[in-house]
């Protein structure tokens, strides 16, 4: 779909990738961008990007009533970007059960509720796209991020199973699988990271190309290639972070990965 002239909503748009998505949507000529955040007061710098075109919306993925209310307010959207998520770095066997449930409720169920609430809206506006931002961890569990990986894998499965139903309603349902990004989520973790604007640009390029699966940055494309060629190698790399980081450094050294 064309971004120019579209009406978009972005969850988690107050910081990180979400904020850059709002900026990139404005640059590409979106008519309106609903900037959703659970604390609207944090959206002031985002509204300042273009007060005429950026409309703040209160939206917490764990509160269904707010999602439904947002679908009522943003009733003209043609592009929905489900970007918001949480990540808790607690190894699974030691993780409090609640911590894994929180990741599933926010990342998986929150995204699912968004898709359900906005499908009739986008369909009613003549079709468009819904984009679920996930992770390379949708394809393999990562040590120390067990609940996060599980939530992104479940969201990946829902994205695949819902895709035909949305296509029948004129909506492209895209999945996004980024590598490490230089945002608060990965603060203090030593790994190759792309800038949030690189990722936002890659996401919108994929949306404009109508892609089902969007690998928006160089690490995503490199590791996505390993997943497609050798899923077992991919699984073992993600289960062993030092090996994963070493493989990325080796690829950078050899020129196979250019960041
Ligand atoms: N950073 C990475 O390395 C990386 C890698 C692969 C994929 N991703 C994915 O990329 C997306 C963006 O991540 P990011 O790096 O930009 O993360 P981030 O900097 O941690 O920002 C997360 C955003 O999600 C919002 N959020 C959290 N819980 C929410 C809830 N219950 N309801 C509504 N909003 C909520 C946060 O709002 P508050 O400010 O209110 O907390 C914030 O705006 C996520 O889906 C993430 O899983 C990130």
Automatic annotation (TrEMBL):
GO terms for cellular component: cytosol. The keyword Oxidoreductase applies. It holds the Pfam family adh_short. InterPro entries: NAD(P)-bd_dom_sf, Sc_DH/Rdtase_CS, SDR_fam. SUPFAM superfamilies: NAD(P)-binding Rossmann-fold domains (SSF51735). GO terms for molecular function: oxidoreductase activity. Keywords: Oxidoreductase. Belongs to the short-chain dehydrogenases/reductases (SDR) family. This is Unannotated protein. It comes from freshwater metagenome.
